Amino acid sequence: MNNKLIKWSIAACALTVAVSCSKKNETAQSVDPKSADSVNVSQLKPTGATPEWGKTIKPEMQAVMEKLASYGDKPIETLTPEEARKNHTPTDAVMDLVKENNIAVPAPKVDTTGVNINVAGGKIHARVYTPKTGKASYPIIVYYHGGGFVIADLDVYNASAQGLAEQTEAVVVSVAYRLAPENKFPTAHNDAFAAYEWVVKNAATIKGDAKKIAVVGESAGGNLAANVSIMARDKKIMIPLHQVLVYPIAQSDMNTASYTKYAGAKPLNKAMMEWFTKHYLNNMNEAKDPRISLINANLAGLPPTTIITAEIDPLHDDGTMLADKLSAAGVKVNSKNYDGVTHEFYGMAIVVPQAKEAQAYAAEQLKAALK
């Protein structure tokens, strides 16, 4: 495992960010039994001026972005995918802030195991988070991480997946779909559905209730989660009871108001989105495919949907446009925007108050759907 991912995995798991999950044995390890609730994360203060690209940024969010900038990595859009995967991530920045500010990291409330899933052309891995409450059966959430279909992995997004399991008391299956450019469109989309189909058929083997399944995804993963619901509908297998889409990629026009206003934002900017698109798609005409441009897909009959957006994010308008299109198609939609935060804020609950609020909001929606 990449050293950066090991460090992040130790520091940034769960809603309150709690444990590490080794890829080798995927056994949760306690870092610090003390409660993080006693720590006032609002004490985190930025050291520099408010950035030009985000004048409304909250101080805790700015502190994370300053830490990320301090590593001096080259911009992702100037790198090869192999090089980009070695860059520090926002999760590394959170981890360092946790250490530097002596923020307590609570013990895990879940156990983790790994499963391998057969897909067209090979196998993919998934990490299964099971609450430690000892029940015979739990609802299931299938989770898809972000990274533009090109970078990141289960470790980078461990905090989000484990937070879901701990807050909803559900089994969470976090899917390591294959990445581009080694695996071009629609590989990630097909892997995402294959993993969902595996969960439906094998729920009992992971202490899951096959009648109570939801999907959740962030960014590129939000796009995948919505596509899973569409494919389930079209293939006439069980449709998820709910979907939570966190700042999803939902359309291909990079000249929306939020793309224009936050073209230079961090940690995601317009140039990075162009880079992701180039590496995932076989050609740029595929950007109009309804699997990429969800706002042009048939959205009728999809499950009730929760959409979470960030103010300082090129993808902000993707989320609002998709919410409008879903509502127009007769889908029940609840959406919430969080001011003063950037793309990738959702997994930062241990240092960013808005992330804690957003995770609690998503958990509330999921528990209501899966009860």
UniProtKB/TrEMBL annotation:
<dbReference type="Pfam" id="PF07859">
    <property type="entry name" value="Abhydrolase_3"/>
</dbReference>
<dbReference type="InterPro" id="IPR013094">
    <property type="entry name" value="AB_hydrolase_3"/>
</dbReference>
<dbReference type="GO" id="GO:0016787">
    <property type="term" value="F:hydrolase activity"/>
</dbReference>
<dbReference type="InterPro" id="IPR050300">
    <property type="entry name" value="GDXG_lipolytic_enzyme"/>
</dbReference>
<protein>
    <submittedName>
        <fullName>Alpha/beta hydrolase</fullName>
    </submittedName>
</protein>
<feature type="region of interest" description="Disordered">
    <location>
        <begin position="25"/>
        <end position="53"/>
    </location>
</feature>
<feature type="domain" description="Alpha/beta hydrolase fold-3">
    <location>
        <begin position="141"/>
        <end position="346"/>
    </location>
</feature>
<dbReference type="InterPro" id="IPR029058">
    <property type="entry name" value="AB_hydrolase_fold"/>
</dbReference>
<keyword id="KW-0378">Hydrolase</keyword>
<feature type="compositionally biased region" description="Polar residues">
    <location>
        <begin position="27"/>
        <end position="45"/>
    </location>
</feature>
